[in-house]
Amino acid sequence: MGIKAVVFDLDGVLVNTDRFHYLAWKRILWELGKEFSVEDNEQIKGVARSKSLEILLQMKNITMSEVEKMRVLRKKNNLYLEYITEIDEEYLLEGVEEFLELLKFNGLRTAIASTSDNTSLVLEMTGLKKYFDVIIDGHKVKAPKPNPEVYLVCAMELQIEPDECAVFEDSRAGVLSAKRAGMKVVAVSGRIIGEADKCIESLKNLDMNILDFQ
Ligand code: G6P
Ligand code: MG
């Protein structure tokens, strides 16, 4: 069965915003008197904001009232927004625009599936919005990855069956979410993550064979 639509995660696949999420969390943990390493960050990659905080509180043995959690979540987002004030097309990852042009040229439908509430803002600031037929973000779905909801809603809005969709993801939670939705998955991480069907380093120099899963 051929691929008819390609669905992309945003942070870390199309745009180099992952490090800003990382820096914002690092600052939050520093204020709480805790270290936060790149390895720690792997545990929350692709995970929604409030779920990320729960994981971090457990990891670092911190207890916090619900009110304090709300304050920290707001602060994390404000820090992230400060970090991204300057982003533009320079922050696109390698090969992104060329690959999106190639997909359009070949008549494929395209979508974004991100649980970030800042999806629209990032797409606008980097000039990517025009490439997508469907955009599903944290305002449209509540269940965070690895729940398959974000990918299932995407397929529904694209009006394409999940098994005719190929997904590009860089996180364990994201790969799991897309596989649970019944889609083909390319891990953009240089190594196979979970049940991913293929893996690549980046979107640079891709041709249409990347969508061949036979
Ligand atoms: C993406 C990122 C995560 C982030 C999540 C929520 O999945 O990879 O690092 O926590 O979105 O983003 P938000 O912008 O709503 O905090
Ligand atoms: Mg990601």
Automatic annotation (TrEMBL):
Q: What is its EC number?
A: 5.4.2.6
The active site annotation covers D9 (nucleophile), D11 (proton donor/acceptor)
Chain residues that bind Mg(2+): D9, D11, E169, D170
Could you cite one Gene Ontology molecular function of this protein?
A: magnesium ion binding
Pfam families for this protein? HAD_2
Give the cofactor binding note: Binds 2 magnesium ions per subunit.
Q: GO:BP terms for this protein? A: carbohydrate metabolic process
Keyword Isomerase belongs to the record: yes
The record places the site described as Important for catalytic activity and assists the phosphoryl transfer reaction to Asp8 by balancing charge and orienting the reacting groups at: S114, K145
Whether NADP counts among this entry's keywords is no
Q: Which reaction does it catalyse?
A: beta-D-glucose 1-phosphate = beta-D-glucose 6-phosphate
Keywords of this entry:
Carbohydrate metabolism, Isomerase, Magnesium, Metal-binding, Phosphoprotein
Question: InterPro entries annotated for this entry?
Answer: B-phosphoglucomutase_hydrolase, Beta-PGM, Beta-PGM-like, HAD-like_sf, HAD-SF_hydro_IA, HAD_2, HAD_sf, PGP-like_dom2
**Cofactor(s), names only, from the UniProt record:** Mg(2+)
Q: Which residues of this UniProt protein bind substrate?
A: 9-11, 25, 44-49, 52, 76, 114-118, 145
> What family does the Swiss-Prot or TrEMBL record give for this protein?
Belongs to the HAD-like hydrolase superfamily. CbbY/CbbZ/Gph/YieH family.
- Entry protein name: Beta-phosphoglucomutase
